[in-house]
Amino acid sequence: MLDIGITKIMLIGGIALVVIGPERLPRVARTIGTLLGRAQRYVTDVKAEVSRSIEIEELNKVRQEVESAARDVHQSVQSGIESASEALDPNRDEDHPGPSSGESEWWNTPTPAYKPPRKNWRVKRGAMPQWYKQQQGVRRHVQSAAARVARHRPRPARPF
């Protein structure tokens, strides 16, 4: 790639000093430094984006493999269950695969959807004892900002 040694850098610096001049050289050097920093950050960002996309592709391949394996396991378990149920109940009617003699299908009953408990923070705050609120510094009464400032303002000394 670029093989730049200390002698080449000194040679480039000497030529820049002669061409640009000592007054503008620090400003030009700062500008070149910021441009090189931007270029390095851009290259780093591009490398990170490429590696991220490669990782995403690999993860998608792994996910597809796991999903296909899960489907295969599900199908084999399902076929095993069907063969076992046929072996246990050979008198079962193929037109009506439901339970015989009034049995209930407890495995086919739908489960109710999860409903999170209602959280009422006012009730929780009211359940705390007053001594605990005082110890922890929980405000028990609402005050306006002006009232708080007036409460904490130092009082003037009384004349004798």
Automatic annotation (TrEMBL):
The annotated regions of Polar residues compositional bias extend over 101-111
- What UniProt keywords apply to this chain's record, in alphabetical order? Cell inner membrane, Cell membrane, Membrane, Protein transport, Translocation, Transmembrane, Transmembrane helix, Transport
Which GO cellular component does the record give, naming just one? TAT protein transport complex
What Pfam families does the record tag this protein with? Answer: TatA_B_E
Question: Where in the cell is the protein located?
Answer: Cell membrane; Membrane
**Molecular-function GO terms, alphabetical:** protein transmembrane transporter activity
UniProt main location, coarse: membrane
Q: Name one GO biological process term.
A: protein transport by the Tat complex
Where is region (Disordered) located? Answer: 70-160
InterPro entries xrefs: TatA/B/E, TatB
Q: Which HAMAP family match?
A: TatB
**What quaternary structure, including any partners, is listed in this protein's UniProt entry?**
The Tat system comprises two distinct complexes: a TatABC complex, containing multiple copies of TatA, TatB and TatC subunits, and a separate TatA complex, containing only TatA subunits. Substrates initially bind to the TatABC complex, which probably triggers association of the separate TatA complex to form the active translocon.
**Function of the protein:** Part of the twin-arginine translocation (Tat) system that transports large folded proteins containing a characteristic twin-arginine motif in their signal peptide across membranes. Together with TatC, TatB is part of a receptor directly interacting with Tat signal peptides. TatB may form an oligomeric binding site that transiently accommodates folded Tat precursor proteins before their translocation.
Q: What protein name does the entry list?
A: Sec-independent protein translocase protein TatB
Q: Identify the species of origin.
A: Sphaerotilus hippei
High-level lineage: Bacteria, Pseudomonadati, Pseudomonadota, Betaproteobacteria, Burkholderiales
Q: Which gene is this protein's source?
A: tatB
